[in-house]
């Protein structure tokens, strides 16, 4: 045998596998239709960040002022909106990379190559960063377009426009990319729990990261805010109010001031570089415990059906088996109820005792609370608790590969209805405590609201799960909706949590029930797919 | 009777997977043979009401199954090439779920689940969650679910993948028994799977039906086309460039090759009796040569 030619490792040879992993991953993702939707969402975000002059909503304001739409201000507003929302939505977009490699089998191919685990994670991290950065590029282009469209200041200063993207948004996207990779590999967080945890981490970051004392400069906005405050005071000494970032309704259109931008100092740039550097370390950390797709050392994609690892004695089928006559197959009875019971079992499969203990504790606490406390505090807690179970609706069959079997079974609509009914049961059971208190106190308006939510939430979960075939879309939709409802945004209060006892809910229960009916009808129609069946991707 | 009439399937991007295939299926087994990418799985999915054909008709006892798939689905047992399970359910729980989805009565569901698990020898393992099963055991669960509703039509796509040789024999025998009074459509690219059980063979390649008939007729067509010869290793490349080689064995004297050709490829070639693999390769190879020409 010829001796292998010894090659000296160079930076180029070390980088090649990382770039190879990243490039393949990026290509795979950007060629999926969902990527175009994500980019369109970035365009919509850019449009939202620069509202028309007479608008009653705003993303960024200093009291009753906003900046005139010059390059510096439009760049900052758009970059901050991007930082805020892409750190949340982008996280859900880039999650699940190792799980996808495991489910597709690519992971096992890579594991059998000399590719180092650190190189694998570096490549995947780079891929996450590139996907998120591509959204920033689209946002920046949208920002430039919006500046010209709004026309308050048509002088384009590309440096001022792009600076906030480079020093504020990009480091945050890098951190988001690393956090996604970390949660993908941490036992306990690699599933839906990681999505929920990130939502709360993101809230802490979004609020706490704006302050002057935030570690490593937080989200890096404080320097710009201080500069804006100074310039507002200069131009409008009577101006009052604080910096606010987020989608906000304003009674009257805001006054404008001219913000000339900010110049980051060396300390600021160093802190941004430190955020990116720390993110790289976090992204490579999983190499310490990653099992390199060895199913014997733990599995990433729990529902993967491609890598069965037998842990029961593999009873062979070869040995002679005494023949037994088969019972004649008869239809009839109440198959819907057995189907419903089976769907409920599937929905709850693998749920641990501590989950039920917490649900029971919330129910008991509600019984002890007054009507207001039960709906204001306990109900939101009770209806965030099952979010991971709800997100299984409409997704378990496609994610587990069971749809290959279900597609050839008659009456898919009956199955979908049974699945929704299982979700309704889960919602009613987890909200049982507050619901019982509403009955006890004779609060019929509250009970109507509760009932509508019991119908609505599983319908939403089933619809989003069926459309996306992934549990992430519901989680990404429901968490902000729940947060808004629980925090007093009355127009989104689907639970009736913010209503006073005896008062009607702000979201009419009939409207919510109608919406639930429409969502369910959409799912059933999709199931029908042209007189039941034939729908290419219907479960 | 299940009729697939002039079926075509073109996927997004323009790939034509099935190109005008007609199959009329009565009780008995039809072995669908074809190379990978021939359109077998697309055709199987169309027969199983999973995929809607781009054109053509699927008739079940004369009823249009494209417009109304439920009557066919009620009579169908389908084992796809690749499928998943709910990992935390046991085999009986999973089968009873599918039995409920198929509308079976509770008593029937219980009885047939137990009997079918016995049939595929999974009674003992039945109490464990499916995530603990091996690939072969999961495939047996798949076989059991296909038989749950005592189907009139059984569509099985590459069913022996993941089974060991003895299990393959057992499954083929089971299919053979079932074909006595049911329509069985068996798709595979393993000729020996079909050879031992099917009296009716359909060969597809490039989305087209190349042959439909008995194995004997397919063999008869190939008579005079199979040659055995001994070649030097250095001549092998030239032989393979000119002819289809169905198999070869390296021996100390040289390479003993079995070649498909219209006339003796070398003067000392000896005519050989064709077997079904030769016949299949000659059929598929002939179509490939026509396409190339």
Automatic annotation (TrEMBL), chain B:
Keywords: ATP-binding, Nucleotide-binding, Transport. PROSITE patterns: ABC_TRANSPORTER_1, ABC_TRANSPORTER_2. This is ABC transporter ATP-binding protein. It comes from Streptomyces coryli. InterPro entries: AAA+_ATPase (IPR003593), ABC_transporter-like_ATP-bd (IPR003439), ABC_transporter-like_CS (IPR017871), P-loop_NTPase (IPR027417). Belongs to the ABC transporter superfamily. Gene3D superfamilies: P-loop containing nucleotide triphosphate hydrolases. It comes from the Bacteria. Residues 2-231 form the ABC transporter domain. GO terms for molecular function: ATP binding; ATP hydrolysis activity.
């Amino acid at each position: 045998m010829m001796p292998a030619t010894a090659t000296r490792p160079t930076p180029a040879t070390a980088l090649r596998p990382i770039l190879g992993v990243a490039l393949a991953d990026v290509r795979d993702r950007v060629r999926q239709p969902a990527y175009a939707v994500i980019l369109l969402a970035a365009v919509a975000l850019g449009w939202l960040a620069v509202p028309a002059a007479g608008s009653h909503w705003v993303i960024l304001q200093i009291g009753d002022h906003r900046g005139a739409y010059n390059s510096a201000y439009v760049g900052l507003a758009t970059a901050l909106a991007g930082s805020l929302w892409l750190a949340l939505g982008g996280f859900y977009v880039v999650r699940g990379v190792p799980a996808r490699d495991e489910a597709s089998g690519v992971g096992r191919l890579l594991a059998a190559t000399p590719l180092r685990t650190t190189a694998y994670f570096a490549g995947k991290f780079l891929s996450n960063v590139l996907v998120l950065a591509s959204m920033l590029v689209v946002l920046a282009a949208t920002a430039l377009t919006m500046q010209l469209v709004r026309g308050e200041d048509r002088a384009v200063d590309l440096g001022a426009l792009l600076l906030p993207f480079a020093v504020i948004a990009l480091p945050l996207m890098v951190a988001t990319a690393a956090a996604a990779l970390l949660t993908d590999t941490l036992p306990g967080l690699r599933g839906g729990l990681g999505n929920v945890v990130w939502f709360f981490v993101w809230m802490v970051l979004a609020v706490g990261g704006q302050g002057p004392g935030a570690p490593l400069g937080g989200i890096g906005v404080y320097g710009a805010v201080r500069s804006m405050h100074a310039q507002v005071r200069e131009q409008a000494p009577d101006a009052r109010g604080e910096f606010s970032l987020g989608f906000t309704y304003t009674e009257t259109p805001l006054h404008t001031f001219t913000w000339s931008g900010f110049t980051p100092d060396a300390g600021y740039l160093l802190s941004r570089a430190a955020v990116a550097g720390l993110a790289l370390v976090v992204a490579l950390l999983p190499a310490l415990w990653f099992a390199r797709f060895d199913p014997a050392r733990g599995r990433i994609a729990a529902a993967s059906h491609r890598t069965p690892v037998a842990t029961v004695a593999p009873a062979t089928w070869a040995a002679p088996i005494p023949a037994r006559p088969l019972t004649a197959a008869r239809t009839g009875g109440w198959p819907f109820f057995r189907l419903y019971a089976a769907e409920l079992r599937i929905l709850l499969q693998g749920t641990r005792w501590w989950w039920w203990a917490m649900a029971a504790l919330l129910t008991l606490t509600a019984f002890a609370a007054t009507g207001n406390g039960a709906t204001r505090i306990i109900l939101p807690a009770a209806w965030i608790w099952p979010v991971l179970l709800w997100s299984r609706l409409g997704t378990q069959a496609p994610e587990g590969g069971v749809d290959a079997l279900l597609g050839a079974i008659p009456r898919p609509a009956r199955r979908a209805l049974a699945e929704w009914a299982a979700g309704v049961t889960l919602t009613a059971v987890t909200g049982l405590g507050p619901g019982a208190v509403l009955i006890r106190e004779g609060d019929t308006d509250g009970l109507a609201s509760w009932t509508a939510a019991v119908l609505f939430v599983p319908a939403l979960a089933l619809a989003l799960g069926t459309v996306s075939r992934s549990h992430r879309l519901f989680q990404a939709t429901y968490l902000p909706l729940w947060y808004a409802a629980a925090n007093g945004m009355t127009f989104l209060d689907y639970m009736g949590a913010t209503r006073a006892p005896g008062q009607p809910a702000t979201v009419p229960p009939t409207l919510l029930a109608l919406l639930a009916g429409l969502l369910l009808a959409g799912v059933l129609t999709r199931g029908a797919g042209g007189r039941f069946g034939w729908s290419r991707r219907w479960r | 009777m299940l009729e697939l009439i002039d079926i075509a399937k073109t996927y997004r991007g323009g790939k034509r997977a099935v190109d005008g295939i007609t199959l009329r299926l009565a009780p008995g087994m039809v072995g669908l043979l074809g190379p990978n990418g021939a359109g077998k799985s697309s055709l199987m999915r169309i027969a199983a009401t999973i995929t809607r054909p781009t054109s053509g008709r699927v008739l079940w006892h004369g009823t249009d199954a494209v417009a109304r798939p439920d009557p066919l689905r009620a009579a169908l047992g389908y084992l796809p090439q690749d499928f998943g399970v709910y990992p935390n359910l046991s085999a009986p729980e999973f089968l009873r779920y599918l039995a409920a989805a198929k509308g079976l009565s509770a008593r029937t569901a219980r009885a047939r689940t137990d009997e079918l698990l016995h049939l595929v020898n999974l009674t003992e393992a039945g109490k464990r969650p499916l995530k603990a099963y091996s690939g072969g055991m999961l495939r047996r669960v798949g076989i059991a679910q296909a038989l749950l509703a005592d189907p009139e039509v059984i569509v099985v796509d590459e069913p022996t993948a993941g089974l060991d040789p003895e299990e393959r024999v057992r499954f083929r025998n089971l299919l053979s028994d079932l074909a006595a009074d049911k329509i069985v459509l068996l798709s595979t690219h393993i000729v020996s799977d079909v050879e031992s059980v099917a009296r009716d063979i359909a060969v597809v390649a490039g989305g087209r039906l190349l042959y439909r008939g008995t194995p004997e007729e397919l063999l008869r067509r190939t008579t005079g086309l199979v040659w055995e010869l001994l070649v030097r290793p250095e001549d092998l490349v030239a032989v393979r460039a000119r002819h289809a080689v169905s198999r070869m064995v390296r021996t100390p004297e040289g390479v003993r090759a079995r070649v498909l050709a219209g006339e003796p490829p070398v003067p000392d070639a000896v005519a050989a009796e064709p077997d079904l693999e030769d016949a299949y390769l000659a059929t598929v190879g002939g179509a490939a040569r026509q396409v190339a020409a």
